[in-house]
Write a structure and sequence with these properties.
Strand content: 15-25%
Largest sheet: 7 strands, parallel
Strand order of the largest sheet: 3-2-1-4-5-6-11
Number of helices: 11
Number of strands: 15
CATH superfamily of the largest domain: NAD(P)-binding Rossmann-like Domain
Order of helices and strands: EHEHEHEHHEHEEHEEEHEEHEEEHH
CATH class of the largest domain: Alpha Beta
Number of domains: 2
CATH topology of the largest domain: Rossmann fold
Radius of gyration: 20 Å
Shape: globular
Distance between the termini: 40 Å
Helix content: 25-40%
CATH architecture of the largest domain: 3-Layer(aba) Sandwich
Bound molecules: NADP nicotinamide-adenine-dinucleotide phosphate
């Protein structure tokens, strides 16, 4: 079986490559060129896997690139993971977010339709499409009310792939994934920012960790569990849309407390709103709140109802919240030694 992974250098690309290698796939990945020719998280893969991956350098916004790639390779499966994936950045740069996430997805869907219609395609949709949901938990029937350029772009991608599925009979499945984190999560995402800061403090840093809304409520799972759900979607009898998440809600505050707990520090909080600080037992300021890190519009209150994935795909998350935080902090402690 031949697979093409867009966004193979990102977090999910790393875990998916490992999973599909273990299943005997021939793996092709799209990487966008940069001046240092770095390949992101692919560098963390074991050498035997890394050396087997065939890299195609290209950009999502290049329709001709995908047309030729699909005509040449005709993969059995495509996992379309590549995206401008950071909500905060999407407020600063909405145009490029739309170009990459909307036009890029359209380019790929057109290439599948025109050059490789038997290919099964996965699209990485997101719980951010729910916006600030009023009903908890959220499932495949919850209405979408996106509240960031990122979420709008993903919803456009979602409707594009659904429309192509129905109009042209393509096998395209959408994963409506809730937040999933890991030891290779991008450093700008709040969970990794916390685990890296905690590890830095163990190394002697005195710089307080700066966070935005401590009360933001998310459903955080482990990326290694989620890629198995993605694979199951493409190996299901019908192309459908599935929610993947853990069904547990935790706040940024809880994540932070848990992360400091891993290094034996019990945080106490003082002050309110942007004046709130997190203190160590001896009164040092370890956490500060920064107004600059609040988003123009909050989107949270996420809790996944993943019953459909459990019942139809036999998928469920394995890693619990505390294990996730622990593995992230411990990994950053190891790599910062
Ligand atoms: P990620 O770590 O940010 O990876 C994104 C990937 O897309 C990177 O490999 C990046 O390449 C690539 N990319 C970005 N712009 C590109 C372009 N113009 N052309 C080609 N490649 C480009 O994201 P992730 O956490 O693995 O998430 C995978 C997908 O799931 C994303 O679409 C994301 O939006 C979606 N999603 C993620 C979550 C989550 O919690 N992780 C939840 C829901 C949905 P570079 O290495 O060059 O930057």
């Amino acid at each position: 079986m031949k697979v093409l992974i867009t966004g193979i250098s990102g977090q999910d690309g790393y875990f998916l490559s490992k999973l599909l290698y273990s299943k005997g796939y021939e793996i092709h990945g799209v990487v966008r060129r940069n001046s240092s020719m770095s390949v992101g998280n692919l560098n963390f893969l074991p050498q035997n896997i890394r050396s087997e991956i065939k890299i195609h350098y290209g950009d999502l916004t290049d329709a001709n690139f995908f047309a030729k790639l699909l005509a040449d390779e005709k993969p059995d499966e495509i996992y379309h993971l590549a995206a401008q994936s950071f909500v905060g950045y999407s407020f600063q740069n909405p145009s490029s977010t739309y170009d990459v996430n909307i036009s890029g997805t359209l380019n790929l869907a057109n290439a599948v339709k025109d050059y490789s219609p038997r290919t099964r395609m996965y699209f990485a949709a997101t719980s951010e499409m729910f916006g600030q949901p009023e009903t908890i938990p959220q499932n495949e029937n919850t209405s979408f009310k996106p509240r960031s350029p990122y979420a709008v772009s993903k919803l456009a991608g979602f409707w594009t792939t659904k429309t192509y599925r129905e109009a042209y009979g393509l096998f395209i499945a959408n994963g409506i994934c809730f937040n999933h984190e890991s030891e290779v999560r991008g450093p700008e995402f709040v969970t990794r920012k916390i685990s890296l800061a905690v590890a830095d403090m163990v190394r002697g840093s005195n710089k307080p960790l700066e966070l935005g809304n401590l009360e933001a409520r998310k459903d955080w799972g482990y990326a290694g569990d989620f890629v198995d759900g993605m694979w199951k979607m493409l190996n299901y009898k019908e192309p459908e849309d599935f929610v993947l998440g853990t069904g547990e809600i935790h706040t940024v505050r809880e994540f932070t407390e848990e992360a400091f707990g891993v290094i034996g520090i019990r945080l106490t909080w003082k002050g309110l709103g942007v004046n709130e600080v997190g203190l160590s037992e001896d009164g040092n300021i370890l956490v500060k709140v920064s107004r600059d890190l609040y988003r123009p519009l909050e989107s949270d209150n996420y809790k996944a109802d993943y019953r459909k994935a459990r019942e139809k795909l036999g998928w469920k998350p394995k890693t619990k919240f505390k294990e996730l935080v622990k593995l992230m902090v411990e990994n950053d402690l190891k790599s910062s030694k």
